[in-house]
Write a structure and sequence with these properties.
elongated, homodimer, 9 helices, 258 residues, 31% helix, alpha/beta, five-stranded parallel beta sheet
Chain lengths: 258, 258
C-alpha cells in the first residue's frame, strides 16, 4: 500500500496566487517537505508533519519524500512559483531515475503554479509577449561559459530574457557579468525590469535600461527581465510605466536578425 | 470617473487552475471581453455584460475594453493560460501606446495565470527544469525565416523549447517544417511532448521523439515541448513515462556547446 506524492507550486508569495488544485493537494497531505521559507507560507493543519530543509538539500529532500510515499504516506513537496522551473520537480525525477525500481510505480503528480517571470511581467505590462526564454544565472550546476553562450544566442536571435537566480552570496559577480555580455548584442536603452518579492508585502518592481542595470540591487528574491530591441516603455502620469514587447516585428528588423 | 481594467489569465481550461486573484477580478467586473471559447469558461453572473469576439479581433477588442473603462465601467478581458504569453496583455499595451492620452491614466492590472507550457510540463514531469524558451510558430505577425533562426539558436545553445500555436487551418505546414529544422541540431531520439487540451475532459498527453514528431497530430489546442540533448525519459509500469531535463549538465557537453 503506497501513498501519493504531490510536487506543488505555491506561485509567488501570496495565497491569492495559489491555485485551487494546489490548495487541495496541500490540505490532503500528511507530510509536508520543502525549503523552510516556502514551507512557512503553508498554513499549519492538525495532524500534518512538517519537514523544512535547506535550499541546497534538494536531492536529499526528494529522496526522503519518495521514501515516505513508498511507505504509504500522502506527501506534498512544495516549491515557490512553479515546481518545474528551476525547482523541485527535476530533483524528484532525478531521484526516481536513480532510486529503487519500486519508486517508478508510485503515484506522483506535479501541480503547476504561476512562475516568477509571469508574475513580474504582469506587474509591468507584457514584456514576455513575444518569443522569450528563461535562463538561470546560477553556475553551481553548469559552467559559466555555457551561460554566456546562451545569453549570446538569446539576445542575438531577439528573445526577451528572464533571468532567474541573478545573485546570491556565493555568486556575487555573475549578474553584472551577464549584463555586460548582453550589452554586446542589445542597445544600451533596452528596457530591464527588476521584480523583487512580487506578491509579498515588501514587493518592489523597477524599470531601468541595460546601460544602468548592473548598478541595480538584485538578490535571491529578484527576477530580472531583459527586453528585446523592440520592447517599448509607455510612461504614465502617477503610475509605474508599462513595458511591453509587441507581438509583431518590423520586416526590416526581421531580415536583419535572420 | 473612470473604471478599472483587469486583463485576466484563466489558466488551462479548468477552474482548478484559476487563481483566487483571477476569480475575484472576474466576479468584480461589470463587462467581460474575450475570445468566445475563453469567455465560455467564465460562469455567468447577474448584471454582467458579455462581449465575445473572434480570435483575430484582438486589437478591436482591446480598444473597446479600454473605451468602456474610460467611461467608468469595471472591465475584465480574459485570456486562456497567462495573458502575457502570446495573448491579450500585449494587445492592451499596444492600444494604450497608440490611443488617446487619457488611456494612460486608467487603472489597468494584469493578472497572471498558469501558461500552457507549465501545465503540459507538469503532466509529464519536468522537461523545462533547465534553461528553456517559448516560441510561437505563428507567422502571421513575424516572418518564417525569423522563426527558423530562433529555432536554430535555441536548439544549438541547449534550450528546451516550448512551441505555442504549432498548427492552424491557415498554417498547415509550419509545424512539420519546424521539426525538420530542429533535426539539424538535435538527435532523432530527443523527447518531444504533445499536450492537447490539458485540464479539460478531452486532455491528451503523449511522448514521442523528434524523429517521429512530424507525424503526430497537433492543432490549435496543442502545446509541444521539444527536449534537449540531455532530456531523459523514465519508463514506468502502467503509467505515463516521466520526462525531465536534468538541472546539471556534464562538463564535456557544456564545453562542446560553448
Amino acid at each position: 500500500m503506497s501513498g501519493r506524492l504531490a510536487v506543488v507550486g505555491l506561485g509567488p508569495g501570496d495565497e491569492r496566487y495559489l491555485t485551487p488544485e494546489a490548495a487541495v493537494a496541500l490540505a490532503d497531505a500528511q507530510a509536508l517537505y520543502g525549503y523552510g521559507p516556502y514551507l512557512d507560507r503553508v498554513p499549519a493543519r492538525a495532524g500534518q508533519s512538517r519537514h523544512p530543509s535547506d535550499n541546497r538539500e534538494e536531492a536529499a529532500r526528494a529522496a526522503e519524500a519518495l521514501g515516505q510515499t513508498a511507505q504509504g504516506v500522502s506527501v506534498a513537496v512544495v516549491s515557490g512559483g512553479d515546481p518545474g522551473v528551476f525547482a523541485m520537480a527535476a530533483a524528484i525525477c532525478e531521484q526516481i531515475a536513480t532510486g529503487p525500481d519500486t519508486w517508478r510505480t508510485l503515484d506522483v503528480v506535479f501541480i503547476p503554479g504561476v512562475t516568477a517571470m509571469l508574475a513580474v511581467a504582469a506587474r509591468i505590462g507584457a514584456p514576455l509577449a513575444h518569443d522569450f526564454c528563461a535562463v538561470s544565472l546560477s553556475d553551481n550546476l553548469k559552467p559559466w561559459p555555457l551561460i554566456e553562450r546562451r545569453l549570446d544566442a538569446a539576445a542575438q536571435a531577439g528573445f526577451a530574457i528572464a533571468l532567474y537566480n541573478p545573485v546570491s552570496r556565493a555568486r556575487p559577480w555573475q549578474f553584472a557579468s551577464a549584463v555586460e555580455r548582453l550589452r554586446r548584442h542589445l542597445p544600451p536603452t533596452a528596457p530591464v525590469i527588476f521584480g523583487r518579492a512580487v506578491g509579498r508585502p515588501d514587493e518592489r518592481v523597477t524599470v531601468t535600461t541595460l546601460e544602468s542595470a548592473a548598478n541595480e540591487a538584485a538578490d535571491m528574491a529578484t527576477l530580472v527581465i531583459v527586453g528585446t530591441r523592440e520592447t517599448r516603455v509607455i510612461e504614465r502620469p502617477g503610475r509605474l510605466p508599462l513595458v511591453y514587447t509587441p507581438r509583431w516585428i518590423p520586416r526590416a528588423l526581421a531580415e536583419a536578425i535572420a
